[in-house]
Amino acid sequence: MKKVKKLRKSTRSSLITYGLVILFFVIVQVMMITGNLSSSLRGQLVPIAAYIVMAVSLNLTVGILGELSLGHAGFMSIGAFAGVIVSTSLENQIANAPLRLAVSMLVGGILAAVVGVIVGVPALRLRGDYLAIVTLAFGEIIKNVINILYVGYDSSGLSLSLKSANALGLEEGGKVVLNGPMGAVGISRISTVTAGFVLIIVTLFIVLNLMHSRSGRAIMAVRDNRIAAESVGISITKYKLMAFVISAALAGLAGSLYALNFSTVVAKKFDFNTSILVLVFVVLGGIGNIRGSIIAAAVLTVLPELLRQFNDYRMLLYAIILILVMIATNNEKIKNLINRVTLMLDLKTKNDPKKGGAA
Amino acid sequence: MEKMVPVPSRGIIPERDVNSSPILEVSHLGITFGGLVAVDDFNIVIGKTEIAGLIGPNGAGKTTVFNLLTKVYQQTKGAILLDGLDTKGMNTVQVNQTGIARTFQNIRLFSSLSVEDNVKIGLHNQYKYDTLSGILRLPNYWKAEKQSKEKARELLSIFNMEHMAKYKAGSLPYGAQRRLEIVRALATNPKLLLLDEPAAGMNPRETEELMENIRKIRDTFQIAVLLIEHDMSLVMGICEGIAVLNYGKIIAKGTPEEIQSNPEVIEAYLGKQKED
Ligand SMILES: Nc1ncnc2c1ncn2[C@@H]1O[C@H](COP(=O)(O)OP(=O)(O)OP(=O)(O)O)[C@@H](O)[C@H]1O
Ligand SMILES: [Mg+2]
User: Fold this and answer.
1) Are B167 and A5 a contacting pair at CB < 8 A?
2) Which residues line ligand 1 (CB under 6 A)?
3) Among A114, A186, B67, B254, which is least packed by CB within 10 angstroms?
4) Structural domains for chain A
5) How many CB atoms lie within 10 A of CB B87?
6) Å from CA of A235 to ligand 2 middle
7) pLDDT at A284 over 60
8) A7 has a chain B CB within 8 A of its CB
9) What's the pLDDT band for B4 if we cut at 50, 70, 90?
10) CA B249 from chain center: how many Å?
11) What is the CATH number of domain B1-99+190-276?
12) Could you tell me the strand order of the sheet in which B24-33 lies?
C-alpha cells in the first residue's frame, strides 16, 4: 500500500529560497566590508551568481518541463557576446555603468530567447529526446560561429567580418570587440555582485511565480502526462516552448552578467563541458528543486577553490565529493536522467561518417 | 461540404431524446492499424443527458473508440458529430474544448502534483489569465486563482475528496485516483463524459458509490456519459442504453434487458474463451 503524504506548502518553500539568497548576499556584503573575504573568493562571486541563474533556468527545462537540454551554455554564450557588443557600443551613449549593464543584459536575454524559439520550435514538436540532440548540436554550432566572428566598433558604428580583425577596416580609435578565436577582448568590467544578486532574485521571481501559476501547472502537466494534458485541453507545444524559451532567456541574461565581469571571454568557455557542468548542478541539487540548484551551483563553483590547499588531489577530491553526493541523492529521476544523458553521449561520440540513421 | 450519410435512426435509446438533438452522432466510424481493422462501421447516437454503455470482450476495440472520439487517433473512415458539429480535422485539445472529456483505462494523473492542482489543470480553459499576469501576480491572477480554487474544491466535493486536496495525486489509493480522474475530466466543463472502465480495481462498495455518483453527475451537470465497463452490475445498473462491440463491430444495441437476453452477446462473451 502506498502512503498518502501531504505536499509541502509551496509559498513557504519559496520564501525560504528567497531568504536563503538574501541571507547569503548580506553575509557576503558584510565580509566584503570587514575585509574578511579572500580576493580569489571575491572574484568568484559574479560567476557564482551567473551559474546559479544557469542552474535554476536549466532546472526549468529539465525539472519542471521534463525535457533534456545539453546545450544550455550555448544560450549563455549568445547572451555573453551580445552583452559585450552592446555594452561596448553604448559606452559613450550610456555613461551610467549599471544602466548600461542592465541594457546589455536585456539585449543578451532577448537574443537568447529568439534563438530559443528557433531551436525549440522544430525540436519540441517531436516526441522523444529530440531537444537533447538539437541543443547538443546547437551548443557546438554557436561555439564555432563565434570563433570565426570579428566585430569592430568605431564612430561609424558596428562592423562585422568573417575573415580577420584587419578586414573590419576600423578607423583610428576604433575598437575590436570580438576577435575571432581570441574571443571578446578589452571588455569594460561593469558586472557587480549586486547586479548578480538582483538577477538571481529576478530569476527566482520569474521561475517560482511561473511554477505556481496557470501556465506553470500546464507545463508540469505536460511533463507528468502528455496524453492526459492534451485530453484536458492543454496545448503541448505551446507550453513546452514557453518553458524552454524562458529558460533560454534567463541563460542569456546570466551570460551577459558573466562576460561583463571579465576583460576577455572566449567562446570555448561556453562549450559542451559547461552545459554538462550546469546539468550536474541541477542533478545534484535535485531535479525540479529550485533551492537545490542554487545551493549546488554555489557550492560546486567555490569547491575547487576551497580544495586548493589539497593541491594535487584537488580534482580527485572534487570527483569523490560529486560521487558521494550522487549516491546520497540516488533516486529514480536521477537514474532516468543519467540514462538519457549517456544515450546522447553515445550518440555524440559515435563518429559514424554516414549521415542520418541515428535514432 | 456535402451532407454526410444519414445516421441510422436508432440510437442507443431513441425514445429518450425525441425532443432534443443528440450530443453525439457517430456514423460509419472505422480505423485500421496496419492490417488490423480495430473498429469498423461503428454507428452510435447518444442523447444529451443519456448514460450509455459500451461493452465487449477484451480487445474488442472499445478504448480505440474513445481514442477516435477524442482524436488521439484520426479515423480512417466515417464521421463524428459532436453537438451537431463535425469534429473532422480537430485535434485532442480542440475536441476537449468543444465538449468531450475522458478518463483513461490505465490511470493517467499528473501524479507528482497535488490533487487540487490536478483539478486546477482540468480548469485550464475555464479560468484564464496570461503568463505575464501570472508571473507578475496582477489582479486577474488572484481573481482567477481564487475562482479555480473554489471550483476545484466544489468539484472534489462530489466524491467527498476535499480533504485530500493537498495530497500528492500519485500517492492516493487506486479508487481515489480513478475518482480524481473523473473530477479532472468534469473540470473541463464537458457535454459528453467518456469513462474507460471507471470501476476497475474498485471494491463492491466503491463500485456502488461510483454508480450513485455517475447518476448524480449526470443530473447535476445535465451531461451525457458514455462508459466502458466490464463490471456488468454497474453497466446494467446505470446505463439506459448499451452497445456491444466485438472484433471492432457493433453486434447489438439496446436497453440493458435487451442486451442481457441477446444470444449474439452471450455468444461473444462465452465464445471468446474457445478461440483463444
Ligand atoms: N495504436 C495501436 N496500434 C496497433 N494496434 C492497436 C492500437 N491500439 C489498439 N490496437 C489494437 O486494437 C484492438 C482493440 O484494442 P482496444 O484497446 O480498443 O480494446 P478494448 O476493447 O479496449 O480492450 P480491453 O477491454 O482489454 O481494454 C486490439 O487488438 C489492439 O491490439
Ligand atoms: Mg480498453
Assistant:
1) yes
2) B 33, 36, 38, 56, 58-64, 105
3) A186
4) 2-358 (1.10.3470)
5) 23
6) 25
7) yes
8) yes
9) very low
10) 19
11) 3.40.50.300
12) B36-46, B24-33, B77-82, B85-86
